[in-house]
Amino acid sequence: MRVEGKGLINRGHPVSFTFDGMRYEGYEGDTLASALLANDVRLVARSFKYHRPRGILTAGSEEPNALVTVGRGARQEPNVRATVQEIYHGLEARSQNRWPNLTWDALQVNDLAAPFFGAGFYYKTFMWPKAFWEKVYEPAIRRAAGLGALSGENNADSYEKAYAFCDLLVIGAGPTGLMAALVAGRAGADVILADEDASLGGRLLAETHEVDGMPGAEWVREVLEELGEMPNVRLMPRTTVTGAHDGGTFGALERVAHHTIGRAGTPLECFWRIVAKRSILAAGALERPVAFRNNDRPGIMTAGAVRAYLNRWGVSPGKMVTVFTNNDSGHRTARDLLDAGVHVAALIDSRHDAPDCAGVRVLKGAQVCDSGGRLGLESITIRSVSGEDKLQTDCLAMSGGWNPTVHMTCHMGGRPVWNQDLEAFVPAEGAIPGMRAAGACNGVFSTAGCLRAGAEAAAEALDALGVAGGAVELPAAEDDPYRIAPLWAVPGKGRAWLDFQNDVTVKDVKQAAVENFRSVEHMKRYTTQGMATDQGKNSNVAALAILADVTGRAIPETGTTTFRPPYVPVSIAAMGAGSQGKGFAPQRFTTSHKASVERGAPMIEAGLWYRPSYFPVSGETTWRQSCDREVNMVRESVGVCDVSTLGKIDIQGKDAAEFLDFVYTNTFSTLKVGRCRYGLMLREDGFVMDDGTTARLSETHYVMTTTTAAAGEVMRHLEFVHQGLRPDLDVNFISVTEQWAQFAVAGPKSRELLDELLDEPLSEGDWPFMACGAVEVAGVKGRLFRISFSGEHAYELAVPARYGDSLFRLLMARAEEKGGGPYGMEALNVLRIEKGFITHAEIHGRTTAFDVGLEKMVSGKKDCIGKTMSERPGLFGDDREQLVGLKPVGPVKQLAAGAHLFNEKEEAVRVNDQGYVTSVAFSPTLGHMLGMGFLKNGRARHGETIRMVDHLRGLETYCEVIDPVAFDPEGGRVRG
Amino acid sequence: MRITCPICGERDRREFYYKSAAVALERPDPEAGDGVWNDYLHLRENPAGVTRELWYHETGCSAWLVVTRNTVSHEILDAVLASEARA
Amino acid sequence: MVELVAKSAGDGLLPVTIGKLSLTEEVPTALTSLMPFKGGAAALEAALGAGLPGPGESGAAAGGRVLWFGQNQYMLVGGAAEGLGDAAAVTDQSDAWVVVRLEGEGCEDVLARLVPLDLRPQVFAEGRTARTELMHMMSSVTRVGPQAFMIMVFRSMAATLVHDLKTAMQGVTARR
Ligand SMILES: [Zn+2]
After folding, report:
1. CB–CB contact B63 C71 (8 Å)
2. What is the DSSP string of chain C?
3. Could you tell me the residue range of the domain that residue A46 belongs to?
């Protein structure tokens, strides 16, 4: 219920929303949790395993119970913490993990069967029969135990990622963080102040403390105003710093639009990578529940959360509230409620020496040992020296003490340290380089202490940054001591909950210890304690304390759990922002792309490039028809193909020739100016890396061609060889792949076509096979290479890329006049298979120069990369699988890449494997399928019949082993 | 992770490409023998502690670097140009 | 007679204006890569009539702007590439890159969504340049004004660059 005169919500701005279809009203500034409590909605969820009714436990991102689904359709967002979700007009929220509804959930029978469902239940029960796990057990368990569900539709929201840099990152904007940001900001340092809350201020918004003689929230407003005016300070509300990583880098999740109905172009979330020279962790502390029988009933919440709902949101979670505490902070809840006019039934303090509290009965040395009520709290049972008593109450505010939020300090392997006075872990110093933990997260729990700690941490950071800071006067604030007597679990029968979300009880932890899972890491995995979305924020320390108790060890001896990033759940969509769909990788388009698409060519991806598969003409209904026509066209007249995607590297310098001799197996220093040569490149381990032609433009100037796929790899390799192995060589190189649009013009009529286009016709005799030189097309300076990947008389013509589109259209038109036209990747592949030319299907990383029949290209006269290792035993000889051609000879005419080769009479099993097929195509030129592959001692076996078996496709074909060059083996056409 | 490129300064690790241990710089003589070549190509230390590695500032200045790094703390201790790292 | 028609790298993609941010294509008269040979830096400087910029710097030279472009590499944007002598590997890159100008309030925020670079004015002032990664693309980023950047990626990736910049511009504008 709302409490008049309390809260920081905007009462002039009502907001309506729905929960499970019911319409409710809240106010601007409300979270879904505060608005539901204001409407007296206590039951909001069902627990994970037992489907127990659950309510709101906390007021922050640590909430384990109140997980809801927000939105619908593609925008449906499951497992949203109601304590974090701000309400907006039209917000639709639904409870989850219940059927048919929240108040009557069929699977609450799980709770009755609980004696069977304890720790290790799954491990013990669903072991047998093994085959049942996937088919029966897992689907059933998944349906019964679960969180919210995704819509199954594509994510319709957009996400962002971004980088930020600063001198000082302040994590958390409570009194510590605000004071730190103020001190550092005033000194002129570049500060980022990030806080997961929509409103900065931390506990100052949730308490009634005065700071500097004014209400805490008022002081916050003034500080924020000052910080907001500083150009060197960036305030990042709704931003949870999720992880501390190497090199001063932090991950942070900004919830950009979760508090709105959504606006076009606005990302839902932004995942930040913040690089900070120094950081201050001012993450505060989280309150611990106390374990007692039935402590999970809706209406039982942490005492600090009750204060937060009262003071910040003007809501009392109950009409008759009881407080149960083991430390002084619980008394504040009673005082604040009383001051606001809320009835407080009793204050139960487990300490015998507890202080008094004006206006309320304090039961000292007493404990709450049970609770009652159907779908929400109606009564509690109090045990004291005088026995057990029942008390009517609809809200229990419990405090088991506070845990400093040490999580971030553990992200790089640091282990927190047990502090006996606080009965809590505090950060180990220096656990994150450049980070200082300050305030409550460092075990300082008074407001004055936090303000002081913030100022000191900032001063220390400024010192390290070399920024001069002036003296800052600390505002006056409460400096109350924090007194606590440990109380982890109230003894007694029944189930007392530790991990609310994963339904782990005190008994489960004890059971784990009995079964000898004494290590905290084992206990955690056995019971699943701490493995829910809250990652044990509410339960880790208590579970550890109970494990310590039953194993007869002290807490620090028992260990700590390991906190890993992220601090809160982060959607994969946010971390992978920008990578949805085609955003995963850049798209590279050739200059002929548009013209190819206009021709109806289906584009296929080749690395990042898009290349045309084939160019259909009217009447063609299958790709094979187009492909066959294109192949014939090249063999009979002239074809045009964009080959710009092949890597081109410009190599210049007086040592360019020597450098090429070192990276290629063959010799390039002997290449004449104006000529090209095919080159083979090895990795240092002797295997083939890449191949291509390299042209010599002048004594000191070469242009190397790489395959499309390996262009980047070759560039990296060349840089490594130069910088790492031969920095003495005076040579420079640069990629010119993108500078030139280059087109293959292939076929018997290629020369005729070029002569029409070039400003000067090609003079007879000057352009033999493998010649290269400068040409002009319509006054544009280009380069011409007489090289061929089709086995035909062919050229590659290059012009600056700006003319690529124009030249391609021109070439197509002229080729068509001659009965030719454009050809795509399919035809290109057929043409090269007919000629036995290798691609990365053959030089796939496990083949040597010997294997592909090019061992003669490894010059014996010089050293080169890979030469020594290519000569080692095992990389050559009869045992190697060698490149062969394959031609079907039996009744089955089909070949398949990936199929394996076996001797005719041998069984097609692994031990009899003779090799495999790498490339296949139907050759319209030869009228049958052709294959390329690797066969043991294959070069000596031409003419043999071999059996090709494709176990996947169920295909078996008898083939003749032939020379890889199936068409025009003499090479007359290419020279013609 | 951040690497301080001797040319570009401190940069995000996503600009860099990792190759191998810096041993790759010590290419043996072609005639050094199988054992030496085998060591050079295949045998690597896997220290829990300080290690020297080759990184390429691929989307930055294109310099190959020898980065000295602690595999336990992830601390980057040094980064020098590979062209100058060889004795 | 045949005729070849030139198309710029960003043809059909630009300009784009979103909120206070504009993205336009720049078409420099030439882009020329300069990579001095050993001992050739001084001769190159003489030919350029200007000193070569240090890492991350740019300056005026040969009637254009010369950018530091990587280890032992400079990019002359505009200007006269002729007569630079043989002290350096001189390579025409005029068609190899798409060059765009991002301008307007919030342009730093736009780039912060795409490059892992510290772009704060005190670190990356006018005239500073960097080679960096832009959404997996090799890129060059130069601050050419208090609220303006020149961005270059390989020509073939022009569409991806414009798409990524537009998305970031929308994200930044939508938050205002
Ligand atoms: Zn660099």
Report:
1. yes
2. --------TTTTT--EEETTEEEEEE--S-EEEEEEPTT-HHHHHHHHTSPPPPTT-EEEETTEEEEEEETTEEEEEES--TT-TTSEEEEE-TTTEEEEEEESTTHHHHHHTT------TTTS-TT-EEEEEETTEEEEEEEEETTEEEEEEEGGGHHHHHHHHHHHHHHHHHT-
3. 1-151
